[in-house]
Design goal:
The chain is an alpha/beta fold and 327 residues long. It has one domain: 3-Layer(aba) Sandwich (Rossmann fold), CATH 3.40.50. 45% of the residues lie in helices and 13% in strands. The protein has 12 helices and 10 strands. The strands form 3 sheets. Strands 2-7-1-8-9-10 form a 6-stranded mixed sheet, sandwiched between helices. A two-stranded antiparallel ribbon has the order 3-6. It has a two-stranded antiparallel ribbon with strand order 4-5. A hairpin with a 5-residue loop joins β9 and β10. The two termini are 16 Å apart.
């Protein structure tokens, strides 16, 4: 389904123009709060609203919250898309939509370092399967699914600049009942890889620090076990497809520079004196080698396995959307 077809879908359901007009300011504020491009509000009519309507229709027969999994390479726009659509579902369709990010479910720094000591030193760096608290994640999803009217729960938040989980009083508050859960993250929905494909290194990190492929096999084992259980909770798997892996570094570097600007806004000239981490472009190139293998695998495999596809151009613009024909 291309952009024109999405617009026709919107018109076919007599979506009132006033709804887009009423939501535009709210969406612009949502984008501003995410340090995202506010001009994305121009996609209300041809992308966000039609997709929100599709979700609202899909979720109606459900007795428990509809879980939408959103995977995609780093920096492709997953978080922004889910935040905007969840906001539209709440404001325009009276659905309580919650966004849970895989990035907020990392192990604490202390637990991650302890795991790295017993499993493999590369697990000290957050990112790959094995560095998330999957048991906590399963508990959170179970609680969200059963949250009743008048009940409140808190979902963890992670501070990437500190490389650790935020204190509990800064977690996300969620009131029940929940209608829709967006579960977004770079490897959400990833399937295990064949054992044979793991043997040869694909970058300098793997060649120098995982010569025997033990880390790669340990990551794959995580996908076969705990992450499989977590991803099986997903009702509809979505995927943001880049034109190639080559654009992913530029997207992620842009994301890091936005974080850097955000921190400068908060801390000003004292930022360099604080224990807050922002990666340089060179450090980022090394960091992304941790993600490369699974990202390349997903770019190939998600074309067949995902229920919903968002095709992106090199500028992160959604140029085509493919929805299931029936459900």
């Amino acid at each position: 389904m291309n952009i024109t077809e999405l617009r026709l879908l919107s018109q076919a359901h007599n979506l009132p123009a006033s709804l887009a007009e009423r939501l535009r300011f709210d969406v612009e504020q949502t984008l501003k709060g995410l340090y995202a491009d506010e001009s994305l509000a121009d996609r209300l009519d041809d992308l966000y609203l039609p997709f929100a309507r599709w979700v609202s229709q899909y979720s109606r027969p459900k007795h428990q919250p509809l879980v939408l999994g959103m995977g995609g390479p780093q920096g492709c726009g997953k978080t922004t898309f889910c935040a905007v659509v969840s906001h539209i579902l709440a404001k325009g369709f009276d659905l309580n939509a919650v966004v849970v990010s895989l990035d907020d479910l990392y192990l604490t720094q202390k637990d991650r370092l302890a795991y790295a000591e017993t499993a493999h030193p590369l697990f000290a760096t957050r990112g790959v399967p094995g560095t998330h608290d999957t048991q906590l994640a399963l508990t959170i999803f179970d609680r969200l699914k059963h949250l009743q009217e008048g009940e409140v729960m808190y979902v963890p938040k992670f501070d990437k600049s500190l490389d650790d989980r935020k204190p509990v009083h800064r977690w996300q508050e969620v009131a029940g009942p929940v209608d829709v859960i967006f579960f977004e993250g770079w490897c959400v929905g990833a399937s295990p890889m064949s054992e044979e494909s793991l043997n040869e290194p694909i970058n300098r990190l793997e060649a120098d620090k995982d010569a025997d492929a033990s880390w790669r096999h340990a990551v794959n084992e995580q996908l076969q076990q705990d992450y499989k259980r977590l991803f099986e909770l997903i009702d509809v798997q979505m995927w943001m497809q880049p034109p190639s892996f080559d654009v992913v570094y530029d997207w992620r570097n842009k994301q890091e520079r936005v974080l850097e600007a955000h921190l400068h806004d908060i801390h000003g000239g004292v930022l360099d004196t604080l224990d807050i981490k922002v990666m340089s472009p060179e450090a980022l190139k090394g960091f992304m080698q941790y993600y490369e293998r699974i990202t390349r695998h997903m770019i190939c495999s998600m074309a067949q396995s995902a229920d919903v596809h968002f095709m992106l151009d090199e500028h992160q613009t959604v140029i085509k959307t493919k929805l299931p024909r029936a459900h």
